[in-house]
Amino acid sequence: MIKIFSFVLGALVFFGGAADAQAHMTSPGQMRLKIDTAQADISVGLSVSAQDVGSYLKLEDPQTKRVPLRSLEAARDPIERYLASRLLISNNDALCRVYEQQMRWGQGGRRILFFQKRACTKPLGSVLIENKILLEDQGGHRHYVQIEIDGKPARRTVISQFFPTYTLHFDPPTTTPTSTSPHPPTKSTLPQGHALIGAFLWEGIWHIWIGYDHVLFLIVLLFAVARLGQLLWIITAFTLGHSVTLILSALQILALPERPVEVVIALSIALIAAENIWRDAPSMKLRAWMAAVFGLIHGFGFSYVLRDKIHPQAQGLLPALFSFNLGVEIGQIAIVVVAFPLLQRLLLAKDGRRWQRFLNAVVLAIALYWVLMRSFGIG
Questions:
Q1: 207 and 185 in one domain?
Q2: Same domain, 235 and 361
Q3: 201: domain range?
Q4: 219 & 342 share domain
Q5: Which of 123, 275, 339, 379 shows its CA 20 to 30 Å from the CA of 360?
Q6: Peptide bond into 153 cis (omega under 30)
Q7: How many domains does the chain have?
């Protein structure tokens, strides 16, 4: 049984990586921003593939098609200028001034590490983050972004060709980021037509795949499901729940603060996992109601990835919402197709009940850790 789960985990990692390995792209970028609201300072750290940057800037060895460290060293200044020119941060349409910058090699020349410190005008209002590094390439590059505000983790998002910018709204004088800001992002970045539908469809799929808490919630829901009919009831209930609040929150008709929602999402995982441990046959009717109710909370979590990419008055809003929600459902179905047969084999296996309790205990421990971290604003 351990071999089965190890195989599935490896397959998910492989295919997850393959989804991003379009054309020349070898590795996604990592971006971390630390925002000091009191000083209106923003520290930026970037990690990008040296092979990807070198390939784009035509630094490859013609024989090996690799980018050796000596080529990177020889092109240090052009590389640094390229990275700096593709990274822009502004506050209320005024560029935040770079007062410190450095670049070095990481992982033996496999990664380029780029750092900036920027001073913005005070007070912080509409902060626009633009990262177009390698987005002109044909490799479908993506940057995974973590944002800290005053030393606490605040947001996670993905910057891609269709979404090269991300906007944070701060509400003076408290400088607290708000999801119900009355003004739109500084720049409109919504694609149009078929590109819009495709972009938001993929954003929805990718969002649930990288949302480990949503994935764990789906899996613990399925542990007690014995028949296909029960599976359809559970998944339908969860889908209806999160679809309602995703749409209402994205349209800013109904809004909840992000941190309490994230705490309840973690708590929902803990409660379902605990029920799986202590009840041999949980009521499917009760499980469906729990899926629907907690689905309402998860819908708010899904909506947060949209709120700084679209605005209620933006053109193409309804197709974007439909496509994103459809993407979430496709990603959800993919998870269920993989997880449900494996969980069925686990239930029927020798000592299956003991393995089920063990795995749910692991999930319960993870979920309680998230509850603690999120409650105190440190995770």
A1: no
A2: yes
A3: 194-375
A4: yes
A5: 379
A6: no
A7: 2
The last residue of one of the domains, among 148, 163, 189, is: 189
158 lies in the same domain as 305: no
Q: 100, exposed or middle or buried, with CB in 10 Å at 0-12, 13-18, 19+?
A: exposed
pLDDT tier at 113, thresholds 50, 70, 90: very high
- The alpha carbon of 229 is separated from its chain's Cα centroid by a whole number of angstroms, namely 31
Closest residue by Cα to residue 127 from 176, 167, 86, 165: 167
Tracing tokens 């603060």 back to the chain, one arrives at 257
Task: Spell out the alpha helix ranges (H) of the chain.
Answer: 2-20, 50-56, 69-74, 76-85, 193-210, 212-222, 228-250, 258-278, 284-307, 317-348, 352-375
Domain shared by 80 and 212, yes or no: no
- Six-digit token pair at 333? 């179905």
Q: Note the pLDDT of residue 48.
A: 93
Contact 314, 200 (CB under 8 A): no
Same domain, 208 and 142: no
The confidence band for 8, taking pLDDT boundaries of 50, 70 and 90, is very low
Pick from 138, 157, 189: which residue ends a domain? 189
- The DSSP 8-state label assigned to residue 37 in this structure reads T
Cβ pair 111, 170 in contact under 8 A: no
> Does 283 share its domain with 159?
no
281 CB burial (10 A radius; 0-12, 13-18, 19+): exposed
Give the burial string for 299-317 (b: 16+ CB within 10 Å, else e): bbbbbbbbbbbbbeeeebb
Q: Are residues 240 and 368 in the same domain?
A: yes
Min mean pLDDT across 139-148, 191-200, 201-210 is at: 191-200
> What CA–CA distance (Å, rounded) separates 376 from 263?
10
